[in-house]
Design a protein that fits this description.
Length: 576
């Protein structure tokens, strides 16, 4: 039976001050003060409540030495002694995190985050050490070992106890995995992916910006094709033909809002697209779709025909009273046409404009959705999308496009058939930055993800935001993450950002972030029973993110470098 029992060896002190979740403890003896360690746990005895304890985390240990005030009588005596006139006050500050006690309804001890009681002045406080710590941590581990548990690692304060997350709450309420370069973010992500991949119908989609996860054996791998693969149809290649873009995304790609004729460009471009889409639907006899048609309806159309229409309007001459004169839009679309032709001829954008013919038929979007969202096929529970071939200037639009397609298909799936999925957003600061001062291209992705952050959980779409620079990530998106796994963070701005995601009573725990070891994480949120410092399990298959050992590598004797090959790879945009 897991019951806490303490003796004098565990005594810390007595409660002297109470402020909601903050407690101040008076420690009488110096030897008792030495038992206190920042980050360790304390049990507070509740007067009149048998076998019920409040659990708190030590935030600060203080030993104050001051001069004792003399009484008036002492001053008049003017006695001179060699005895010290110092007054010592030992104080420990705690943050309450939950309650521990016997639950008669289930016949065992439990820990809960709720605080139905508060301590009283002079209530006794004991440090959780040795056997009592083992007892408490065993209860935590047992509570986590449910059918929906996700093993993350081991508690730093009690390494014999496994640390679990509630898998339901972790994904239901969005999550953020934050840490500086080399802190262990990637292996934390890989550890979670490994465990999720073992579930029969899990569905996780990883946005991989640098190819770090491209060798995970249990994942389905997709990648945006590079310039030397254009036109090749393959299950591994993910084309995103231009007709998948909505109106806002197309405008961000093609139209410069600073131009005087921008409003005319938008109007003419949209009108030409609408005409082309309607013609396709009419040819296919899709009257039911035509009845609900909008500009954003994902229907294949010919961009060449749109360009031809714009060119005709740009060069149109009208008959006037004295002969031919320039049309209403003469010369207004010259720059737009130049941008369109430039984008179409640039092979870096080939996955948009040079996709195989099969990617332009009416059923192509359903096939793309199957690639992205399939979970029923063996090995499809985890999908890794490699975006490393996407040009940086349109990366936010393309990542946002994929996220939007996934969300919209999930939204329009019948409720009975809908299965939950999670978007794992690696290097989120690159495409989900704060809105201030950002160009329209960047804003499109942010708007798509903000919608998912606010509404996605209702339709079974979860976000896991991963970043080494949380201070650069959209605050709207981060504020929706109710679970935080914070690894080592050295930058002050980043730590301040993380502190805003923490409950006020636990902000002081963040002071440890700059000095944590690789793979150690401070885990706070709805998914973890006790806000804790956890040593994350290393995955069996590590991502390609390990730092290079420079000094060791420089010591090796190797063959002559082949820079000719490297230059050719750069020209071909392929490391083969």
């Amino acid at each position: 039976m897991a019951i806490l029992k303490f003796d004098e060896s565990s005594m810390l002190g007595t409660v002297r001050e109470i402020d909601t979740r903050k407690i101040s403890v008076l420690v009488e003896k110096d030897e008792d003060l030495r038992k206190a360690r920042v980050g360790h746990l304390v049990a507070i005895e509740i007067s009149g409540a048998s076998e019920t304890w409040l659990i708190a985390i030590i935030e600060r240990v203080i030993r104050f030495v001051g001069q004792q005030q003399d009484s008036q009588d002492d001053k008049t005596k003017k006695e001179t002694t060699d005895e010290s006139n110092e007054q010592v006050v030992n104080n420990v500050r705690l943050a309450l995190v939950g309650s521990f006690g016997w639950d008669a309804t289930i016949g065992k001890s439990v820990f809960t985050r709720s605080l139905s009681q508060v301590p009283g002045i002079t209530d006794n406080c004991f440090v959780l050490l040795g056997k009592q710590l083992e007892t408490f941590m065993a209860v935590l581990s047992e509570a986590g070992e449910g059918e929906h548990s996700l093993e993350l690692g081991k508690y730093v304060i009690g390494e014999s106890a496994k640390a679990y997350l509630d898998g339901n709450k972790f994904f239901q309420r969005h999550a953020a995995i934050l840490g500086s370069t080399g802190s262990g973010k990637s292996w934390t992500v890989a550890s979670i992916l490994e465990r999720a991949a073992k579930l029969s119908t899990s569905n996780l989609i990883v946005f991989d910006l640098h190819g770090e996860y491209r060798e995970l054996s249990y994942a389905r791998h997709l990648r945006i094709p590079g310039p030397d693969e254009l036109g090749i149809a393959s299950d591994e290649l993910l084309y995103l033909p231009y007709w998948l873009l909505n109106a806002e995304e197309m405008q961000a790609m093609f139209i410069d809002r600073s131009e005087f004729s921008a409003h005319n460009q938008v109007m003419a471009f949209q009108d030409a697209v609408v005409v082309q889409k309607k013609e396709i639907l009419q040819k296919l006899g899709k009257q039911d779709v035509l009845n609900a048609f909008t500009l954003d309806s994902p229907v294949p159309f010919s961009l060449d025909e749109v360009i031809k229409k714009l060119k005709d309007m740009n060069e149109e001459m009208k008959q006037g009273a004295r002969g031919l004169k320039q049309g209403d839009f003469y010369g207004q679309f010259s720059r737009l046409l130049t941008r369109l032709n430039s984008k179409l001829s640039d092979k870096r954008y080939g996955f948009l404009f040079n996709a195989p013919e099969s990617e332009h038929d009416y059923n192509a979007m359903a096939r793309t959705a199957t690639k992205l969202m399939d979970y029923a096929t063996k090995g499809a529970q985890v999908k890794v999308i490699d975006f490393s071939e996407v040009p940086a200037d349109i990366l936010p639009v393309i990542v946002g496009l994929v996220a939007r397609i996934i969300y919209q298909i999930q939204f329009w799936t019948n409720h009975e058939k809908r299965r939950p999925l999670a978007l794992i957003c690696d290097e989120a600061h690159l495409y989900l930055p704060k809105k201030e001062g950002k160009n329209p291209v960047g804003l499109r992705a942010i708007e798509s993800f903000e919608k998912i952050a606010k509404e996605g959980r209702k339709y079974g779409v979860a976000l896991v935001i991963i970043s080494q620079r949380p201070s650069d990530v959209s605050t709207t998106i981060l504020s929706q993450c109710n679970n935080v796994i914070a690894l080592r963070l050295t930058n002050g701005d980043d730590r301040n950002t993380v502190s805003k995601l923490m409950p006020e009573s636990l902000e002081s725990l963040l002071d440890v972030l700059p000095i944590m070891d690789i793979g150690e994480a401070l885990v706070v949120g709805d998914a973890v029973l006790l806000p804790s410092r956890i040593k994350v399990n290393k995955p069996d298959e590590k991502p390609l993110s390990a730092p290079i050992d420079f000094w060791s590598e420089w010591m090796k004797k190797i063959e002559k470098p082949d820079f000719d090959k490297a230059v050719e790879n750069m020209r071909k945009q392929r490391r083969k």
